[in-house]
């Protein structure tokens, strides 16, 4: 127990030292090397921008709007990507039918879908969610597909011996639990891509609020400290959601992997 507490304390000190060092370096470079807040705002410029009424006043609405867009896109990607990836990974016929279409669509950048998002959904939440969906869908699909394809044959044979007679039973009790690490990794990658797509999804004016929308408006006004503020908010938002997701999956879904590596 003492060793674990000492390790956590040491890690906390190293994290704090790393952040403090980065802030000091940022401030020195911005103040004494660049000396131009449009090219590189200093840490204090960004801090004062964050505390300004123009940012704090609308921050709750901006966060709520962006989380809604992100939730719509990621939710749709989960609902479609996981079942499709599982089906393609388990059934050869389904793989043969869907794989050519997936491989043609997968390299198309999510931003290329923006014109169709506007035409199909208008300037709505669904349009922003669709762009995020396109970015998040393929990592989730690939994670589920790879996980199912990587299930050891001995697991499947053991499942049949233990009474799993149908494909549905084998997927439910054998393949899906074995593929969970790959599926979880795909979801984490998808969330990162989804945050990247959020800015583009909100640029084309689906709402007056949203972190991506405010970032673009700040850039248009050459208010670069505000741009950095919204960039950092996106980064922290992504970290918080990723940590919550990791904590849930590690404790509830992947407890059996504890201690595999360290």
From TrEMBL:
Does this entry carry the keyword Disulfide bond? no
> Where exactly are the transmembrane stretches of this chain?
12-32, 68-91, 111-144, 189-207, 227-245
Membrane topology, as annotated, equals: Multi-pass membrane protein
Name the GO cellular-component terms. Answer: plasma membrane
Please state the protein's primary subcellular location.
membrane
> Which protein are we looking at?
Sulfonate ABC transporter permease
Q: Name one GO biological process term.
A: transmembrane transport
Q: Where in the cell is the protein located?
A: Cell membrane
- The scientific name of the source species is Methanoculleus taiwanensis
Q: Which family does it belong to?
A: Belongs to the binding-protein-dependent transport system permease family.
Which residue numbers delimit the ABC transmembrane type-1 domain? Answer: 63-245
Which keywords does UniProt give here?
Answer: Cell membrane, Membrane, Transmembrane, Transmembrane helix, Transport
Q: Name one Pfam family in it.
A: BPD_transp_1
């Amino acid at each position: 127990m003492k060793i674990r507490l000492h390790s956590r304390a040491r890690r906390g000190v190293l994290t704090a030292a790393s952040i403090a060092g980065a802030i000091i370096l940022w401030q020195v470079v911005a103040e004494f090397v660049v000396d131009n807040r449009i090219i590189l705002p200093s840490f204090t410029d960004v801090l004062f921008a964050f505390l300004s009424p123009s940012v704090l006043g609308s921050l709750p609405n901006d966060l709520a709007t962006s989380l809604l867009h992100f939730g719509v896109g990621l939710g749709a990607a989960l609902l479609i990507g996981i079942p499709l990836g599982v089906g393609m990974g388990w059934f050869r016929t389904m793989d043969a039918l869907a794989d050519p279409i997936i491989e043609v669509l997968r390299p198309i950048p999510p931003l290329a879908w923006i014109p169709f998002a506007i035409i199909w959904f208008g300037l709505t939440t669904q349009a922003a969610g669709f762009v995020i969906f396109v970015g998040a869908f393929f990592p989730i699909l690939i994670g589920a597909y790879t996980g199912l394809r990587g299930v050891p044959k001995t697991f499947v044979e053991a499942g049949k011996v233990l009474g799993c007679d149908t494909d549905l039973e084998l997927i439910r009790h054998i393949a899906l639990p074995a593929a969970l690490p790959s599926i979880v990794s795909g979801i984490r990658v998808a969330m990162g891509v989804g945050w990247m797509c959020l800015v583009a999804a909100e640029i084309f004016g689906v709402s007056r609020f949203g972190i991506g929308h405010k970032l673009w408006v700040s850039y248009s006004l050459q208010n670069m400290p505000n741009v950095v503020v919204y960039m950092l908010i996106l980064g922290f938002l992504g970290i918080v959601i990723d940590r919550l997701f990791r904590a849930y999956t590690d404790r509830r879904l992947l407890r059996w992997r504890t201690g595999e590596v360290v």
